[in-house]
Amino acid sequence: MVERSHKPGPISATTASSLPQAQVNVSDDNSKVTATIPSGDTVEVLLYGATIISWKSNGTENFWVSDAAKLDGSKPVRGGVPVVFPVFGPPPKNHATSSLPQHGFARNSRWEYLGKSTSESASDDSVKMDFGLYSAGLSEEAKKAWPYDFGLVYSVTLTKGELSTILTVRNEGKEGFDFNVLLHTYLRIKDISTTTISGLLGTSYVDKVLDARESTESNSDLRITGETDRVYKSLAQDTTTVVENGSPRFDVVRKNFRDTVIWNPWTEKAKGMGDFEPKTGWREMLCVEVGSVAEWVRVEEGESWEAGQTIKSLV
Ligand SMILES: O=P(O)(O)OC[C@H]1O[C@@H](O)[C@H](O)[C@@H](O)[C@@H]1O
């Protein structure tokens, strides 16, 4: 801050250049990596699960995190962006993932911070941080349950008003493996009753609340009016937009992901989750989860695959 003891005049070139320049700042305290860019936008990534637990742009928090979320590595985080890999939901019977917990092990394993790179542009600087998880770094239990050799690199890029994440899956073993992957994003919204979702019209979905009934979305502006848990499959459009009170609030843009899950637990489910607080929090959150979950993705020996999302905060 510049203190003025006299009447302000025009700032001379010398004065302007001697003002401290805002910079990209990244800090790592061995449990969390925090980045700030000159616009003031910030992101926080917990090494546990490489879970993004905060993203602020234009002074506004964009992600919902439960007040009762465990951030100490004892349980996957209820909120932010947990990474779901290599299985989505409860694992199917008689499958290579059958012994894994719901949503796999990536969200409850400790990832490594691999470092940052920055880039300067006329409009604003940005920073990319990479996180890695390898089969060798898994718990003995997870290794036993899913004995494949793999490497995951998760890149989180913060730019003014935007957060991009890309996940690369590498097969480092001698046999191919199948996996699901999903970015379980909890968006913070003002009020679910005045929020709509566009970009899903005409897409077929599996309704997990209605015994996996298959339907086709007939709403161009979908309103959430009760417990919702749907897997929208093979979307034609890359962008799903969350609209608040008629104004676009978030664009969620998929890159190489085929599907999108829309989830809101509503009253009863929220009551049943010990780590969901406040119990009325479902009013202020909406999960728009991009992923490839309706069908398995396969990577053969030596192959890699990558996909990601860009979320644009439109306020
Ligand atoms: O409680 P968890 O394991 O974090 O899962 C939360 C929800 O995650 C969603 O992705 C699933 O579609 C839901 O079925 C599930 O209830």
UniProtKB/TrEMBL annotation:
Keywords for this protein: Isomerase
GO molecular function: carbohydrate binding; glucose-6-phosphate 1-epimerase activity
Taxonomy, superkingdom: Eukaryota
Disordered: annotated segments: 1-25
GO process terms (BP): carbohydrate metabolic process
Top EC class for this record: isomerase
Reaction(s) catalysed (UniProt annotation): alpha-D-glucose 6-phosphate = beta-D-glucose 6-phosphate
Residues annotated to bind substrate: 78, 102, 107
CDD domains for the chain: D-hex-6-P-epi_like
Enzyme Commission identifier(s): 5.1.3.15
UniProt KW Isomerase keyword: yes
Compositionally biased tracts (Polar residues): 12-25
Keyword Isomerase: yes
InterPro entries referenced in this protein's UniProt entry, alphabetically: Aldose_1/G6P_1-epimerase, G6P_1-epimerase, Gal_mutarotase_sf_dom, GH-type_carb-bd
GO cellular component term of the entry, any: cytoplasm
Catalytic residues, chain numbering: 184, 289
Stated family: Belongs to the glucose-6-phosphate 1-epimerase family.
Function recorded in the entry: Catalyzes the interconversion between the alpha and beta anomers from at least three hexose 6-phosphate sugars (Glc6P, Gal6P, and Man6P).
UniProt xrefs under PANTHER family: APOSPORY-ASSOCIATED PROTEIN C-RELATED, GLUCOSE-6-PHOSPHATE 1-EPIMERASE
Protein name as catalogued: Glucose-6-phosphate 1-epimerase
Lineage of the species this protein comes from: Eukaryota, Fungi, Dikarya, Ascomycota, Pezizomycotina
